[in-house]
Queue: 2 jobs
Job 1
Amino acid sequence: MSNQTDERVNPILDVQGLRKYFSSKKTFGKSTNKQVKAVDDVSFQIFKGETMGLVGESGCGKSTTGRSMLRIIEPSSGKVMYENQDILKLSSKQFRRVKQEMQMVFQDPYSSLNPRKRIGDTLKEPLIIHSIGNRKEYTDRVMDILNKVGLRTDHFYRYPHEFSGGQRQRIGLARALVANPKVLILDEPVSALDVSIQSQIINLLEELQEEFGLTFLFIAHDMSVVRHISDRIGVMYLGKMMEEAPTDRLFANPLHPYTQALLSAVPIAKVGVKKERIRLKGEIPSPLNPPSGCIFHTRCPFAMDICKASAPEKRNMGNGHTVACHLYNDRC
Ligand code: SF4
């Protein structure tokens, strides 16, 4: 977790009303004109040097949010302001510089590594694409970055299949870092790893953030992991942001019933302390046919009549804490 949360003059990233709708022309062979609202009017800011966590169950839109921000998937609408320019409006040539400064780290780096290429050659690619340095400097830079992520210089000459899962994620980090970025979007970077390896990678991320002054968007479904690394956390459900708060505040006083349910499932480390798990009724609704009003009302233990009829607005509860829930209509 960064110590730089007081650097809050201007956000390095300001996501405004981001939407990604996919059209679904056919469902089970029948024609439909429905849209899947994978990301629906999501807004948040990230400040320099901090880690913003993005959590929610599988399919909530958190990964699509991260990919839309980097235009790996083109968003349907909204703005992604990076250093005061809307990167969704940049030409592909202008966007190249931004791509150098904002890199993505994936859950499974192996699938994106060319099995026939030595790791050193793969890691040189971003330097060649972004014209950073010359041939001799490429090798030096790659050797240096291998060292920074805890790999050895002889790993330069090895092939992807020769590495363990944890080492492959270190390679994924090296590839993201080699072009000297400012922002990393980390999409479930430790979800596929054993718990002991997870903590090594999390510690490494924290060290690298400190050393290079990096800003992170950390996407994950594991609340314990997100709590450990994040300065602030946003909670998503069915494509929408439900609640956002500084990490300590969110864990001490979760306001949204969905956040309360997620946190009730996080084990407590203290002996003899038990907490009651809130079990949500039903499954996550289909994004093809989301509920009316508050999209959480079909599973919410506190749902009221208004919840079916009207979608709650995001409300500012003070100290960086926002929530979208009718329970707080008259409390702000
Ligand atoms: Fe529950 Fe209503 Fe709040 Fe939605 S708006 S989370 S249904 S109480």
Job 2
Amino acid sequence: MGPPDLAASRSALIVVDVQNDFSDPAGSLFVPGGEEVAARVSSLMAEAERSGGLVVCSKDWHPPRTPHFREFGGKWPRHCVRGTWGAELHPLLPRPAAIVLKGEDEADGYSAFSIRDLRTDAVTATTLRRLLAHSGVEIVTVVGLALDVCVLATALDAVSLGFRTRLIESACAPVELQPGAGRRAVEEMRQAGVAIV
Ligand code: VGL
Ligand code: ZN
């Protein structure tokens, strides 16, 4: 007989980018509602740990110069520069079992699963899929920031990689560069097969 928590261990909570720059009002790309998201995510992480689930946090982790930033031709203000306060996880979050870095080098790093090089357009995988496969995970719950950017990209990748995927909408918030982007992101995820709860 296997361990009693085998079923629970086959699900994972994927916490997307709940870092100071997105979740603290002093952060450089503060997402409105980000503090409330950090508080909710913190409880969800504790709950997932208690029930034997795997908790993985992604961190946007950019070099100081990247074509992802406005000042170098991209669309975002400077944020989550590796090793800075803005790139740290929100202090309310407990320590996760695993951390996946994304947006390194020349990549946008929107999805926690895949990396698209901004110069060559080549797409490669992060460590996340292998980590989940290694732990026997088949069901993932996605939460975090921003709903209409990295949460969207991560949940869509999760579905296309074959994971049963849930989104807890109340533990996400959109940055909405365009008004309505949050609502459209939820619709897109629903249509792709993400269960919105
Ligand atoms: C994100 C914009 C730029 C995110 C990351 O985590 O949603 N948004 N980089
Ligand atoms: Zn970024």
